[in-house]
Amino acid sequence: MGCGLAGRSLDRIGTSFDHQLARFAQGWCSLNDEPLNIRTCYDAIAAKYAEKFQDEMDHKPFDRDCLDRLVEEVGTREPICDLGCGPGQIARYLRSRGAQVLGVDCSARMIAEARRRNPTIPFHVGDMLRLLEADGSWGGIAAFYSVVHIPSDQMVAALTEMRRVLKPCGVLLVTFHVGDETVHVDEWMDIKVNVDFFFYQPEQMEAWLRDAGFELETTLVREPDPDVEVATRRAYIFAKKSR
Ligand SMILES: C[S@@+](CC[C@H](N)C(=O)[O-])C[C@H]1O[C@@H](n2cnc3c(N)ncnc32)[C@H](O)[C@@H]1O
Predict the structure, then answer these.
(1) Are the CB atoms for 129 and 149 separated by under 8 Å?
(2) Could you tell me the residue range of the domain that residue 226 belongs to?
(3) Closest C-alpha to 117, from 56, 35, 38
(4) SS3 of residue 216 by DSSP
């Protein structure tokens, strides 16, 4: 379904037709319904999600180590984007390590939460499938559990877009839930939603990263910590734009 042409979606997101078309013209909006479902879902849960996850880095030493490595690789002079930033807890941690950071998310309400909670960090609305940034804008990307909403047939396009906006030698750290299943969620934190979570195998993500032109650096898989997160195995892949 074309963006802005589905009355059901327009009603749901409460956006005027003209405004939607303008966004499409800017290249912001995706060409199918799924990102609209994602936006609707995260707009609805933004406040509760932010409350729940804003301090999660305090309890995630493995994630902190990975983010420390990202800052070491990228340095503190080039921007690192928290892509699919939600309320911005990853950006905040990166900033605490001295990095230049920004955050991008397709949900306007998540971006509002991120700005409110981290007023000195720049955040803006954007779609990882069609980023507004020029080629070679960022030194690094931390995509934490945001590709979990990218269907398999769009993953190479999303990764290719990330590679485009990275500088030469820029580094991507992408994390996701390990598995083969698609989990449909219709209620989250007592709010009705309509969203799919795609689990992926690390080998499959590595192949997609290669197809998108990345050079693979390191793949790490860890077991969940049920005290602080949903009990899924987690993958972390470092990949570099080498050319
Ligand atoms: C599971 S949450 C993760 C948020 C945060 N990174 C974290 O670790 O808590 C997924 C986030 O990705 C965002 N997202 C999903 N698809 C996106 C897209 N195509 N472009 C930009 N953001 C997207 C959602 O709005 C949501 O905030």
Answers:
(1) no
(2) 33-240
(3) 56
(4) strand
What is the model's pLDDT at position 236?
98
Measured in Å, residue 105 CA sits from the centre of ligand 1 at 6
Kindly tell me if the per-residue pLDDT of 8 is higher than 90. no
Q: How far is the CA of 22 from the centre of ligand 1 (A)?
A: 23
CA 7 to chain centre: 27
Give the chain's domain count. 1
Residue 213 lies in a domain: yes
Which residues lie with the beta carbon below 6 Å from any ligand 1 atom? 35, 38, 42, 53, 84-86, 90, 105-107, 110, 127-129, 144-146, 148-149
Number of the ligand 1 atom closest to the C-alpha atom of 126: 21
pTM of the model: 0.87
Kindly tell me the burial class for residue 203, based on how many C-beta atoms sit within 10 Å of its own C-beta (0-12, 13-18, 19 or more).
exposed
| 187: its two tokens | 């209620």
pLDDT of residue 35: 65
Q: How confident is the model over 82-88, as a mean pLDDT?
A: 98
pLDDT-derived band at 7, boundaries 50, 70, 90:
very low
* Comparison of pLDDT for 14 and 24, the residue scoring more: 24
- Asked if 88 and 123 touch (Cβ cutoff 8 Å), the reply is yes
CATH code for the domain in which residue 78 is found: 3.40.50.150
